[in-house]
Amino acid sequence: MSDDAPQLYLMTPAGAQASALGPLLAEVMDRIAPACLRIRGGAEEDELGRLADLAREIGHARDVAVVIDDHVKLAQRHGLDGVHLTDGARSVRYARKELGDDAIVGAFCGASRHEGLSAAEHGADYVAFGPITESALYKGEPVELELFQWWSEMIEVPVVAEGAITRDLIAELSPMTDFIALGAEIWTQDDPVAALVQLWT
């Protein structure tokens, strides 16, 4: 990929078990280094804590920032780089206040330009829009790709595309996104490493 191509933003499988994920996660990240690793919610707090420690160890050894869905306290407790907020702009100010200026605070804003702008105004480091195509994993309607085009031309805050990403969509989104998030796209396959290589290269 060229220098101005988007960077990989890797998401763990929702509800993952740290013990099962560890070796595979390291293998995936060694094959294609992500700019950021995001721990998805869905597990119990104890398991999320174990995942946080594992992700921090693997991520920081590779100079990869690690964020976690919504859990500000877990981010603090486990030395993560920040949070990914799944409720749009609502919690951005709170997370920033709790975690400080140096932490990463990202916001998922569905398909709403307004929500994205609010999150950016409240101090989000990046805004994520999705899903890109129909997905049972997301509540909302798919995002119009024009939103990414508009955002990349008008707004300086980096933008992430996530949700039901295909190889063709990566090519289409590349000129207008800073990051492309992959998660279920690879983890649901028999060989996540091969699936990532096939999608990304």
TrEMBL record:
Pathway: Cofactor biosynthesis; thiamine diphosphate biosynthesis. It comes from the Bacteria. Residues 8-174 form the Thiamine phosphate synthase/TenI domain. SUPFAM superfamilies: Thiamin phosphate synthase. GO terms for molecular function: thiamine-phosphate diphosphorylase activity. GO terms for cellular component: cytoplasm. One of its GO terms (biological process) is thiamine biosynthetic process. InterPro entries: Aldolase_TIM, ThiamineP_synth_sf, ThiamineP_synth_TenI. Keywords: Thiamine biosynthesis. This is Thiamine phosphate synthase. It comes from Paracoccus gahaiensis.
